[in-house]
Amino acid sequence: MKSLSFHFCVLIIFGSLLIPAICHGHDSHSQKPHKHVPLFVFGDSLFDPGNNLYLNTSHKEASAYWPYGETFFKRPTGRLSDGRLVPDFIAEFMELPLTTAYLQPGTHRFTHGSNFASGGAGVLADTHPGTISLPLQLSYFKNVVKQLKQKLGEVKTKKLLMRAVYLFSIGGNDYFGFYMKNQNASQSSQTQFVGMVIRNLTNALEEIYQIGGRKIAFQNVGPLGCVPTNRAKTGNGACAEEASAMAKMHNAALANVLKNLQTRLPGFKYSIFDYYNTLSDKINHPSKYGFKEGKSACCGSGAYRANNCGGQGVGGTTTKFELCSIPGDHVWFDGGHTTERANRQLAELLWNGTPNCTAPHNIKQLFGHME
Q1: How much is the pLDDT for 208?
Q2: Is 334 one of the annotated active-site residues of the chain?
Q3: Is the distance from CB of 267 to CB of 295 less than 8 angstroms?
Q4: Could you give the 3-state DSSP secondary structure of residue 226?
Q5: Which listed residue (44, 45, 296, 330) is catalytic?
Q6: Helix axes 275-284, 241-264, angle to 10 degrees
Q7: Is residue 22 scored above 80 in pLDDT?
Q8: What does DSSP say about strands 269-273 and 358-360: parallel, antiparallel, or unpaired?
Q9: pLDDT digits over 269-301, tens only?
């Protein structure tokens, strides 16, 4: 453990977060593919297109109820937003269909990729047991690879996997969980926990590389303390700084890990979108991005409408909640998830953002790298 702690301290000392000045995208989304490029998505509720609807749990997901999905789909789809999520827009920019939940029954075209993300999931298997943790998402990915090999053969599958983009948004729930249980944790225990998350995440990335993946894209961990649910708990309207501090530590370490992997692994390329600072700026300066409200959610009850969007209480009880008339006026749709309008803006920066917010490559550049 000492060697891990030392290694992690080095990462923190030399780690640097991308700090956007004016974070913006290039003009065009168009990028005609030389070859078909699949999209494989790993993550948590920010990227879950409905996998959690098919989990064998005793309670029904909030995302199964109105008003989730009201803007684009006109019905709930399992997405924790009023409409599409970031991976849906990335798929659109890549000229692919909307991302499909891996667990959704029916026929899947895995040559387009698949989405394994699960609301509540973490890098660590014991973060929110019952969700699809990253280790389980990885095992599902291996099942997909097996099916692709049966359909296409070893050689074509290998080429497809090398062309594919692997998109991640994960880690926030690990730190949410740690923060809720250890609000007075020492700096050393925080550092040790972040080190454990990073080590497990690195192992997963190395495994994907061994299977054939070469192009990794990350939306880093956001300002956890500033989501409406945590802001409501502080009592004074401020962000919960301890939660955000761990996110910053994670993001600094993640940047260094990916840089190191690129050095060690031939052909490995990556992108990090600075979700932390980009979202923070939307929260603090909503009008700059066309929003009217950056701190309170569109849907929910209580302070900052932080809770009960959809009105589904414990044990199947229903509770009252408020709903804004125009979700696109808000950065947040519910207490922890952004509106479709915010998701589109975020996706555009992930896809073709300038180096001060998406670096060292954006996804459009990764997409253009053909093996």
Answers
A1: 98
A2: yes
A3: no
A4: helix
A5: 45
A6: 150
A7: no
A8: antiparallel
A9: 999 999 999 999 999 999 999 999 999 999 999
Q: Report how far residue 133's alpha carbon sits from residue 1's, in angstroms, rounded to the nearest whole number.
A: 24
Q: Where are the alpha helices (DSSP H) in 80-223?
A: 86-93, 134-152, 154-163, 172-181, 187-211
Task: Note if 281 is an active site residue.
Answer: no
What value does the mean pLDDT take over residues 202-221?
98
Question: Dihedral of the CA atoms 338, 344, 345, 347 (nearest 10)?
Answer: 100
> Pick the catalytic residue: 48, 174, 281, 334?
334
Mean pLDDT computed over 68-80: 97
Instruction: For residue 365, give Cα distances in angstroms to 32, 67, 112, 174, 271.
Output: 12, 36, 19, 30, 9
Instruction: With cut-offs at 50, 70 and 90, classify the pLDDT of residue 311.
Output: confident
Catalytic-residue membership of 296: no
**Nearest alpha carbon to residue 209 among 138, 137, 280, 147:** 138
Give me the pLDDT at residue 340, please. 98
Long-range contact pairs involving 185-192 (C-beta distance under 8 Å, separation at least 24): 185/242, 188/5, 190/245, 190/246, 190/249, 191/5, 191/8, 191/9, 191/12, 191/249, 192/1, 192/5, 192/8
Crossing angle of helices 340-352 and 275-284, in 10° steps, is 140
CB of 273 closer than 8 Å to CB of 218:
yes
Name the token pair of 95. Answer: 């000229």
pLDDT of 4 reads 43
Answer for the pair 357, 21: CB distance below 8 angstroms, yes or no.
Answer: no
